[in-house]
Write a structure and sequence with these properties.
Structural class of chain A: alpha/beta
CATH class of the largest domain in chain A: Alpha Beta
Number of domains of chain B: 1
Radius of gyration of chain A: 23 Å
Oligomer: heterodimer
CATH superfamily of chain B: MetI-like
Order of helices and strands of chain B: HHHHHHHHHHHHHH
Largest sheet of chain A: 5 strands, mixed
Strand content of chain B: under 5%
CATH topology of chain B: MetI-like fold
CATH architecture of the largest domain in chain A: 3-Layer(aba) Sandwich
Number of helices of chain A: 21
Shape of chain A: globular
Number of helices of chain B: 14
Strand content of chain A: 5-15%
Number of strands of chain A: 15
Chain lengths: 411, 312
Amino acid sequence: MSLKTRVSTYTLSVALIWSSGAFAQKAEVLHWWTSAGESAAVKVFADQYAKTGGTWVDNAIAGGANARAAGINRIVGGNPPTMMQFNTGKQFDELVTNDLVRDVETAAKAGKWREIMPKPIVEATVRDGKFYAVPVNIHGQNWLFYNTKLLKDAGVEPPKTFPELIETGERLKAKGVIPLALGGQPNWEHNLFRAVLVGSGGADLFRSVYGKRDTKAAKSAEFKEVAELFGKMRSLVDPGSPGRNWNDAAALVITDKAAMHFNGDWAKGEFTAAGQTAGKEYGCTIVGKDPRLVIGGDVFVFPATKDKDQLAAQDKLAEVLLDPATQLEFNKKKGSIPVRLDVDVSSMDICAQKSASVLKNPENQVEAMELLSTPNFSGAMQDAVTQYWNNPNMSADAFVEKVTAAMQSAS
Amino acid sequence: MAIVSIPTAVASSARPLKSRRRVRMRLPAALALLPTALIVLVVYIGCMLWTVRLSFTSSTLLPKLDWVGFAQYSRLFMNDRFLVSAENILIFGTLFVSGCLILGFLLAVFIDQNVRAEGVLRTIFLYPYAMSFVVTGVAWQWFLNPGLGLQKLVRDMGFENFTFDWLVNQEMAIYTIVIAGLWHGAGLTMAILLAGLRGVDADLWKAARVDGIPTWRVYLSVVLPLLRPMVVTATVLLATGVVKLYDLVVAMTLGGPGIATEVPAKFVMDHLFERNNIALGTAAATIMLITVVVILAPWVYAKYVRPQGRPA
């Protein structure tokens, strides 16, 4: 062995040690998963990342809006975290257009993300043909949770359509049960409205309203029918609803006070925490002619950086997040389902299995509002919906007018 | 400002040697004030100007320095929610400030009657002020919730038809915010006015008694005018609470039912941080600033500008 080769071997081994040291670099992760179930879920990621030799620095900030504001300020200020959470959708659009986040197209190509993830999720994460975020889960937003015992006592089946739901509700009310538990805060009222819109109006109407902001769709007979159904549902809610938190609403179903509750599948966490099992004490179903599931979820973005160690840590993280076993473990704790549809979900609860099987048919995949519309338009819609819901004297026509006004004025 | 300007006037009329010594004596004071002055200029004034500038742009998630004229303002004044917010802050401001002053004054007069256990009562009345608006809001939300609080309590006692559902009633919800605000702020007003009452010369009371003037009349016509500085202090403190009203609403109603209890500060916060609409949020903030300036201007003029010619 000549001196030259010995030197280069030495250099190589040093370089190897150096680069394996890079994986031990700190990855600071900014997210807003602070509830018990959520932090258990994020710990799955942290542990898996630690197994690869990295150090996970957890930076959890309570409240999505707060966390996003803090993270965006740091990114713009030039001191970004290694990885940051967003909801799947348009929240990070401007970070992409301003070159503040890295694309992960290489990892996406290698992992065949386009083939294993539902199209709406792919489209919500890809900008100009490149993945700019790593989707980690799918949340269904329009589930109807029901109390099996109360429905059985009243002799009714879980409703399949919204007119049926109103009828069922009236019968339950006659029995002295709260038919519909609602967290009476504007965003939950809005979530209920979207469940009615997709279930009764259909996926196309949902897309034209939130995606295309089509005023013709808002003035259509179908939309008015949705508005009227939604208006009728006011009488199914108890007077204590305004201002209530969503978890208190779920608790009404858990404690046999209310029969039905619309929410995203994250509400399962409340039932699980109360020791209840899906399919036994409570059931879950999608109301509507076809089982259209409104899907959103969470993604992680990687803020742009020139630091080689950070880049290496980001690459490693992208790999860890989408590992099939990690995906399964994480989503069991989170209440969502794996973003990879190729993961075997038979070990998950019955609602998650239902969710996964519904999503096997691409026609059932409906993009959530966050994927279709800007936060600003969503907010304007929310203002319109909450005014309509809380004012029984407001007509469906007046509501349609407010919706069209929101479509025209919101940026 | 006023304190600084008096020595200047004196110094300029004195001999040059003396004035130089004054300058040297004031140098440390000026140095000590410099950081504060800089912070006021850069942080407060700077941010205010930046906010006003942003309100003329089309910024959404990130600030963008284009120019769209008054587009955001016309959008703002067509926005149902902002108009309701403006109306609500007017209702809240009027009722809260006047209510706290009246209630605080009555409480102060009551305690001033040499009641027994004065210390205990004073503590009880002042106690709510020690709580944050968030705690106040949550407590009152529970207390006024028709299914949990007052209404249920009275109904359980046998009055089946008793109804008090203001919290969930669109028309009345803003008044529940006023009630919680009064509960929170009346004690502080009482403490300030009570300090004033204690400062009233005992001879005045004796003179009034000799003249046979009824007690209520003495309070109204003699004592109240003497308390003017305390009333002004209390009003200023309460008024700042009105402008920044946010946490109480968020904790108590989250602006609901519907948009019935929305307030301008919440409008600004929501648009800045949740709705990626910096431009509209800053436009609303600018309107808030202008309103405050318009209200304060006559007072500042009367207090500082007009009397300058006269000897203090």
